[in-house]
Design brief:
There is one protein chain. The protein has four helices and no strands. With 98 residues, the chain is mainly alpha-helical. The protein has one domain.
Length: 98
């Protein structure tokens, strides 16, 4: 639902569309992309994103580092799925509690 259309008009448009009648036009304002770039950005958010990148580099190494080991994510996922299925399906023994 657009910001210029009320909830009531939105519901009316659903019925009008269902009956093959013309819909009520919403009063939409034209949005300037430059104004959005100025109004929708937070320098605090940018700083927190950069902090997270730095913490990731400290833990796992820099992005695209030349000597960084390759990690096979697909194989790891399959192993974890298999392990999870094995743990859930293995038989319980008499002396085992839940």
């Amino acid at each position: 639902m657009s910001s210029g259309m009320s909830n009531n008009n939105f519901l009316k448009n659903l019925w009008l569309w269902k009956c093959d009648k013309p819909e009520i036009e919403a009063n939409q304002e034209i949005i300037n992309i430059n104004d959005l770039f100025q109004s929708e950005w937070s320098y605090e958010f940018e700083q927190l994103c950069r902090n997270r990148l730095v913490m990731g580099a400290l833990r796992y190494g820099k992005i695209h580092a030349p000597n960084k080991p390759n990690y096979d994510r697909t194989e790891s996922i399959l192993k974890r799925i298999y392990l999870g299925n094995y743990i859930q399906r293995r038989p319980k023994y008499e002396n085992e509690s839940n």
